[in-house]
Design goal:
Pfam families: BPD_transp_1. It is a multi-pass membrane protein. Helix content is 72%, strand content 0%. The protein contains twelve helices and no strands. It is mostly helical and 278 residues long. It starts with 5 loop residues before the first helix and ends with a helix.
Length: 278
């Protein structure tokens, strides 16, 4: 076996530093969340316990943590649903080059290059001038869609750019209607990317701060609640909350991956059953 070159070790060291920079803060918060009852916000640790996790579920004056979590969760589901539906419909529509499609595409993704805080300010002003209530389920919902929809559109455009239209033609030759073709042919084929768009939409909404800051009204979402806690909480309970929310994020990812795996397994079984029947 040939010895590794110096460039290999330099690249390995650089990658290790990158991983440390990326995940080091999360790991540090996870460790400090297990401080003892007398522990502080920094090292060295004063004992090891789960005291601060229990404190999260106890009556305390640190804000509406679980109410904020429920709002973020519901808002994430709302944003996810709309992002998936609109992205799939737009992907289907943009396969045909209609008049103004290019301009519409650039308008759809323009919000990605606009500072998020300006989007939040603009949406808040629109609702305020229109006499509409500034609320996490309305104005914040609209502001977050300006963030999630462009990503969903870009993913679906890439998917449909590689989609083989012969599958649709074969379905129509068999007498399938347009809706039957979409339901039984197109959607099963693009199911994994659609699930990816759903995960993208939910995760982007769940931890969005800037576009929610001026549009959530009097009720905080979880990122806003955590930001508020940084100014008035001086114990590791905030680290315990960060650890739990991180585990929740990993659990959501695992659920979506499980759905993709189940769909793939079902497809393989369907293919093998069809082969046996032939």
């Amino acid at each position: 076996m040939e010895p590794r070159s110096k460039s290999f070790w330099w690249l390995t060291a650089f990658f290790a530093l990158f991983v440390l920079f990326l995940y080091g803060p999360t790991v540090t918060i996870g460790i400090l969340s297990f401080q003892g009852p007398d522990g502080g916000l920094t090292f060295p640790m004063r004992g090891v316990s789960t005291h601060w996790f229990h404190a999260l579920f106890a009556q305390q004056a640190v804000g509406d943590i679980w109410g904020a979590w429920r709002r973020s969760f519901v808002l994430g589901l709302m944003v996810m649903a709309v992002t998936v539906v609109v992205s799939v419909m737009a992907g289907l529509a943009f396969r045909k080059h209609f008049v103004g499609s290019g301009v519409l595409f650039y308008l759809a993704i323009a919000s990605l290059v606009i500072p998020s805080i300006l989007v939040s300010l603009g949406v808040g002003l629109i609702f305020n001038e229109g006499g509409l209530p500034i609320h996490w389920a309305t104005s914040a919902f609209g502001a977050q869609l300006t963030w999630t929809l462009p990503f969903g559109l870009l993913v679906m455009f890439a998917v449909f750019n590689r989609f083989d239209k012969r599958y649709e033609e074969a379905a129509r030759d068999q007498g399938a209607s347009a809706w039957q073709t979409v339901r039984h042919v197109i959607l099963p084929i693009i199911a994994p990317p659609v699930i990816g768009v759903a995960l993208f939409g939910f995760s982007l909404s769940y931890d969005e701060f800037a576009r929610t800051l001026l549009t959530s009204g009097s009720y905080n979402t979880l990122p806003l609640e955590i930001f508020g806690m940084t100014t008035n909480v001086t114990n590791p309970v905030i680290y315990a909350l960060g650890t739990l929310t991180t585990l929740f994020s990993f659990a959501i990812i695992a659920v979506f991956l499980g759905v993709v795996w189940a769909l793939g397994l079902r497809r393989r079984r369907g293919g093998s059953d069809a082969g046996k029947s032939v």
